[in-house]
Amino acid sequence: MLDFSKKLYLLDGGMGTTLQQSGLEPGASPDLLSLTDPDLITSIHRNYIEAGSDVVYANTFGANRFKLEGCGYRLEEVIDSAVKAARAACDGQTLVALDVGPLGELLEPMGTLAFEEAYDAFAQVMKQGEASGADLIVIETMTDLYEVKAAVLAAKENTDLPVLVSMTFEESGRTFTGTSIECMAAALEGLGVDAVGINCSLGPVEILPLAEKLCSLTSLPVFIKPNAGLPDPRTGAYDIGPEEFARAMEQYLKLGISMAGGCCGTTPEYIRKMKELFASGKSAQNGETEKPIDPAELTAESEPAKLAGSAEQSVICSATRAVTIDHVTVIGERINPTGKKRLKQALIDQDYDYVLSQAIEQVDAGAQILDVNVGVPDIDDVKVLPMVVKQIQAITDLPLQIDSSNPAAIEAALRVYNGKAIVNSVNGEEKVLETILPIVKKYGAAVVGLTLDEKGIPAKAEERFAIARRILDKAVSMGIPEKDVFIDCLTLTASAQQAEVTETLKAMRMVKEQLGLHTVLGVSNISFGLPCRPLINRTFLALAMENGLDLPIINPNDEDMMGTIFAFEMLHNRDKNAEAFIERYGDAAMGSMSRSGAVSQPAAETGKEIDLFYALEKGMKTETIHAVEALLEKVDEMTVVNDYLIPALDQVGQGFEKGTIFLPQMMQAATAAQGGFELIKDRLAASGRSNVSKGRVAIATVKGDIHDIGKNIVKVIMENYGFDIIDLGRDVPVEKVVETVIENEIKLVGLSALMTTTLKSMEETIAAVRKAAPDCRFIVGGAVLTPDYAEKIGADYYCKDAMKSVEAAREVFGI
Amino acid sequence: MKLERPNKIDRGQWLVRLGVAGEADAALEQSLLSAEEKLLKCAAPQGIYRVLGLDEMELSGKAIKKHLAGCGEMAVMGATLGTAIDNLIRQSQIRDMAAAVILDCGASVLIEQVCDAFETQIREETSGYLTGRYSPGYGDLPIETQDQLIRIIDGPRKIGLTVNQSHIMIPRKSVTAVLGISDQPVAGYLATCEECTLRDKCVLRKEGKNCAGL
């Protein structure tokens, strides 16, 4: 239907702004006009078609269940009438696109709309669009890559129509939510859309450099629909006329774009001028605009950047950060419970803050991609892996590597991942390839292929290479581009298989040189069972990089390893002028390996004993940890908690009550104490002893409310006092609180609400829990609450601040 | 429309929001400086306003009618610091809750500063006399009005400002407001406690004070 190789398609121009000119009230919904005044809509489409549009967008931009809520019409009938009104204007040639705009609400984690809910809303639109006879789907004016993903999946899973996507960018080259052109290109090419584009926000002059970039980054057809220039901030009128617009659009032909039209402020006249101008220089046959540029005929001067080959580079991305694998790229290995007792315990206890802290630590250390593995026996990874992925992508923009062998868990995680991920891993086993590669293809991920198969890990490099080739061939046959296949030639331990260490290196070099693929390797296994492991690890890492390792999977907190990579990049002249190296190590003392601006000296070196009370009150985290370490040499963990940490916190709390210590200082003290508690929890987990819990408390910001900073303050303070907190998060449904209370036999619930409108939810939550668990007690807090009102809605304690919550909890648990 | 990013955050306001009496000590000052640098780096202030006749949009509540008394038109404005600030605060809640509290309060001060500057710009660009800003949730102007205002200014498309089903604005550090426009000098009108939806729950009122500082 759409044949981009033959033809440059003209799209239509503005619909909403045209309707406003015909008297639509600002702020009113244009979508209902398809029902109330279909002739008007048809006449606008007809004007565009007469001006030369090959494709018209039906009047469905805002037709979704959220924007049309309470409008008095069914969504299905609104869409149906819009598609039919467009069709009525068409001759046989013109195509009708179902126009799908943003839902109007931001998705999690920025907003509150769940990805799955967005998908459902889009699916409803897509199904009806196809049923009403649309020829294609255009998802447009998008600012959030996550919302785009929900829409694309909804379109592809529920219809057979071609899917085109355009997003809207600021001059900075990013959308309002921070998505860059690189991220859009990488993620959407992966998801298998039929064309990508840019529309709205800016005029043709401002979009041109962005379009150039997009064309250089994608092999997909590109389409552009700019506004009629920039709007006057006062009147909203756009500043470019049809003639000027068309001339500006002519510049795009050199880029080899496939479709052009206009967005806000453009009218049929703009399309007509474009058509005239595009046709004038070129031969026009049968009134169709020939695609004017054949890349083969281009002179060197006008050669589009597309031919430069950057679309051939491997790019992994989150919604806002793209990582091009053109240098040694560190994959952080810390979120993998294998051999890590504390992480394992955290996953079992659903203590996701600990998991997130591991993510943040690696971000700070310089990881560029994070591996995510939740493989603990008895944990349902199909449920937990996507949840952890969602949580991690809410607090870091690093791209993720989904690490699992369970196809269902991989699919669930890839589905909710916002960007283009890596899947770790497949291997040479036919069955594994057959089940996992289709998932990788569907969600547009890259994939790690391990050079082993049902017979195990071959000893010889040649045999591992043969498996790599088999994996590559299979992937390519399924439509996965070569650039997205990464090979792991597998590290064996030098202590057990010394002769085969060089086979790994040799296989990697073969894969790199003969297949041209990127390589991945978990490095630190090499030294298992040998003394002085760091020395072996960093030496092997250097050897591996020299033999073609692109993506080492390491602990980025290990400065020995990171330093080796920085030195390697510098010595290979990829870190130009040693900039990155000097930035990281410029201040390092001679012979030492500490990063510039790294943490303060340990206590031992300062030569004096640090008083825990002093360190904690001053909010000195490192010093507090050292003080706790020193105490742990003399007394046991529980004594440190009960005789030192809590009394020190009490002292701070009393200062807060008296007004000599303020909230920021109290929080700094709490954060310092947290460091001490972490150390104690680590030690308890390592020795398999139970935790320090003084009682279990569930806390939540109530349904409808997303103000959670107050609740999180309470959480930190209460945890410091040894209470075990189940944090249900924000916007928590009543049923979820009830469920948690029953399941975990909770005796105390903390609820927070910051709006008058959500106090109702607080009341309902208390009532529902009381009914199900009459013994449960409640502490409540939030700016709009008063002691009287708290009593009125059935709470047991009104807590004006975090210290009051601790007091209440001590009373409830009889401490 | 892109708005200018202030080059510093008002210390006085910031300390008030943090509940700190008097000056910041050296340690807190260090934290404020570091938070200020991050906030100013992440803030991408955007604003949009539209002038419309009073009859073009129905606003509920008595107080807003008094606020707009004597005005023929109103300016509806929206301003936001953008999503990067929300991301920063979200991340810092995992990293360091103390820093998160400081960032959160700092961002609230910053959006007010952005609004003050934007309001000055609106006054310069508008002929006639303007009242002060009046926002949903204040007095008896229901929070649901948020949806109405954001639709009128085409918030999502123009400045990336959306509202969720609980009428909370996202990005979080955002403001919408209505300013009356008159050809005579107008003072606007601040809601009284009797009109206020918070009257039964207001802590200030219990202490015999009110939010207008009267």
TrEMBL record, chain A:
Pathway(s) where this gene product acts: Amino-acid biosynthesis; L-methionine biosynthesis via de novo pathway; L-methionine from L-homocysteine (MetH route): step 1/1
Keywords: Amino-acid biosynthesis, Cobalamin, Cobalt, Metal-binding, Methionine biosynthesis, Methyltransferase, S-adenosyl-L-methionine, Transferase, Zinc
InterPro entries, sorted: Cbl-bd_cap (IPR003759), Cobalamin-bd (IPR006158), Cobalamin-bd_sf (IPR036724), Dihydropteroate_synth-like_sf (IPR011005), HCY_dom (IPR003726), HCY_dom_sf (IPR036589), Met_Synthase/Corrinoid (IPR050554), MetH_bac (IPR017215)
Domain B12-binding N-terminal, first and last residues per copy: 599-692
Residue stretches making up the Pterin-binding domain: 328-582
Reactions catalysed: (6S)-5-methyl-5,6,7,8-tetrahydrofolate + L-homocysteine = (6S)-5,6,7,8-tetrahydrofolate + L-methionine
Entry EC number(s): 2.1.1.13
Metal-binding listed as a keyword: yes
Keyword field contains Transferase: yes
Domain B12-binding: 694-815
Ranges where the Hcy-binding domain occurs: 1-278
Cofactor(s), names only, from the UniProt record: Zn(2+); methylcob(III)alamin
Family: Belongs to the vitamin-B12 dependent methionine synthase family.
The protein's role, per its UniProt record: Catalyzes the transfer of a methyl group from methyl-cobalamin to homocysteine, yielding enzyme-bound cob(I)alamin and methionine. Subsequently, remethylates the cofactor using methyltetrahydrofolate.
Name by which UniProt lists this protein: Methionine synthase
Automatic annotation (TrEMBL), chain B:
Gene3D superfamilies reported in the protein's UniProt record: 3.40.109.40
Source organism, top-level taxon: Bacteria
Name under which the protein is recorded: Methionine synthase
